[in-house]
Amino acid sequence: MKQLFLILLLYNTGVMSQNTGIYTKNPGSSLAVNGSFAADYKIATSNVILDDSDFYIAYNGNTDGIIQLPVAISGQGNFKGRIYRIKNTTGNWNLTVAAHNLEKIDAVTDVSSILLPPGYYAEFISKGTTTGTTWELSMRVPAVSSFEVTKLVDVTSSVARNSVSSPQDRFTIVRGNPGILDIVIPGSSNSFTLSEPKTVFLDCVLGIDDLESPVSGQIYIMPYYRCELYIDNVRVFSRLYSKIE
After folding, report:
1. pTM (2 d.p.)
2. What is the distance between the alpha carbons of residues 19 and 7, in angstroms, rounded to a whole number?
3. Between vectors from CA 63 to CA 62 and to CA 68, what angle results, nearest 5°?
4. 180, 172 in Cβ contact below 8 A?
5. Which of 5, 50, 65, 140 is in Cβ range 3.0-4.6 Å of 54 for a Cys bridge?
6. Segment 10-62, tens digit of pLDDT
7. Which uninterrupted H or E stretch holds 167?
């Protein structure tokens, strides 16, 4: 009778089944939960080293903070696949999430730490390795979904319309046919490199407008374009080009 009870107990707990289900009779994954899921939630107000009791960490200190990921473990105790979710809930202080000692975080490039400005959220997952890149950055996003972009009007320069004097000074717009465009921003580059993942926003405006000359008072057709580059909500490049003919 005891043997029969033990067999039934093992069957009900899923030990004899390939998959385990909670509130589901036919689990399609190794673990299937047909309901809510809860893990540890912790508020940190100072520097902290994470361990196996942590899952979601909200940093709310009154100065810049550092959260250190746990050191990798080889063999028994290796925590491959462990996930940490971290958010900087402060309004003015930066949070740095750092790997231990010589370990690295796999982001766009291998880095020792990731910066989370106020309002930013990130997820890290252990790769199970013990040297080199032991952690992977799976997500880094700002908590705000949008921000206001202010039109820039105080940085100006000009290039000749339809100029062929320099490959960096091309500006061709045919009024009434917006499909014919040939524009290169002087001093621009085709690419740039970031040391870590950042939010990048490029705002470009192109058009033709009528403008009265401050000298002659005549109305001129003025082609113009403006380009602004924002990184982490900070404007780092702004140009406005126009030419009156």
Report:
1. 0.56
2. 17
3. 115
4. yes
5. 50
6. 455 544 558 999 999 899 999 999 999 899 999 999 999 999 999 999 999 99
7. none
